[in-house]
């Protein structure tokens, strides 16, 4: 069936969103079509406002509307700890635990020679400067546990070790509630390597 051109354009734009296929795009488009006009205008304004106002924190590269993000502005954070993450989304995941009260540094990606991403494409130089300038005592590397995340972690460790600071990596292994018989060999190996004293 052919839709009016403006509806077709909206469906095509919605399909560009992650996880949205043809059927979901059509469902969302028809919802917006049937919603009050002010609902569509509010959504449109929110998207434009977000795109115009959100940038990167000048200190940690998290999402920010001001020069510094709310985390960097918070004087209650423990300034001697720095958690290094790949993206603002990873930062939000760690922050949502409520377990960590230090600072962050967002790399804006990971090393990936196959994709043409080298150290100069990430915020590594700024990380090293922060470690020196801010008297950081511990850097927690929280990159993903894939090949690129592990390579980035090793690269950072090589740069940070000569500075004489403590460098740690997020624990990895068997998830809470998981069973040994269902774990793969790599996960079991990591769990053995990262075991804790009882």
List the helices and strands and how they pair.
Elements lengths: L4 H11 L6 H13 L2 H17 L1 E2 L6 E2 L5 H4 L4 E8 L2 H8 L6 E5 L17 H10 L4 E4 L5 H14 L5 E4 L15 H9 L5
Parallel strand pairs: 3-4, 3-5, 5-6
Antiparallel strand pairs: 1-2
Keywords, separated by commas or semicolons:
alpha/beta, Helicase, Ruva Protein, domain 3, two-stranded antiparallel ribbon, four-stranded parallel sheet, about 200 residues, 2 domains, 6 strands, Dna Topoisomerase Vi A Subunit, Chain: A, domain 2
Describe this structure in words.
- By secondary structure, the chain is of the alpha/beta class.
- The chain has 2 domains: 5-53, Orthogonal Bundle (Helicase, Ruva Protein, domain 3), CATH 1.10.8.420; 76-192, Dna Topoisomerase Vi A Subunit, Chain: A, domain 2.
- It contains 8 helices and 6 strands; from the N terminus they run H-H-H-E-E-H-E-H-E-H-E-H-E-H.
- The strands form 2 sheets. A 4-stranded parallel β-sheet has the order 4-3-5-6. A two-stranded antiparallel ribbon has the order 1-2.
- It is globular and about 65 Å long.
- The N and C termini lie far apart (65 Å).
How do the strands line up in the largest sheet? 4-3-5-6
Percent range of helical residues: 40-55%
Low-confidence stretches: none
So how many helices?
Answer: 8
Largest sheet: 4 strands, parallel
Question: How confident is the prediction overall: mean pLDDT?
Answer: 92
Shape: globular
Number of strands: 6
What's a quick, concise take on this entry?
By secondary structure, this protein is an alpha/beta fold.
């Amino acid at each position: 069936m052919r839709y009016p051109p403006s509806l077709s354009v909206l469906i095509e734009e919605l399909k560009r969103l992650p996880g949205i296929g043809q059927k979901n795009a059509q469902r969302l488009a028809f919802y917006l079509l049937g919603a009050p006009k002010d609902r569509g205008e509010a959504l449109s304004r929110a998207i434009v406002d977000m795109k115009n106002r959100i940038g990167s924190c000048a200190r940690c590269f998290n999402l920010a509307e001001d020069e510094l993000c709310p985390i960097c502005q918070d004087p209650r954070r423990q300034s001697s700890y720095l958690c290094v993450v790949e993206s603002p989304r990873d930062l939000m995941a760690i922050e949502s635990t409520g377990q960590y009260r230090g600072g962050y540094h967002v790399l804006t990606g990971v090393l990936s020679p196959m994709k043409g991403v080298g150290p100069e494409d990430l915020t590594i130089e700024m990380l090293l400067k922060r470690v020196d300038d801010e008297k950081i005592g511990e850097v927690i590397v929280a990159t993903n546990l894939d090949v690129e995340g592990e390579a980035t972690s090793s690269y950072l460790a090589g740069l940070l070790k000569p500075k004489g600071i403590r460098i740690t990596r997020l624990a990895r292994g068997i998830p809470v509630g998981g069973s040994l018989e269902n774990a793969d060999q790599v996960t079991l190996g990591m769990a053995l390597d990262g075991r804790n004293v009882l």
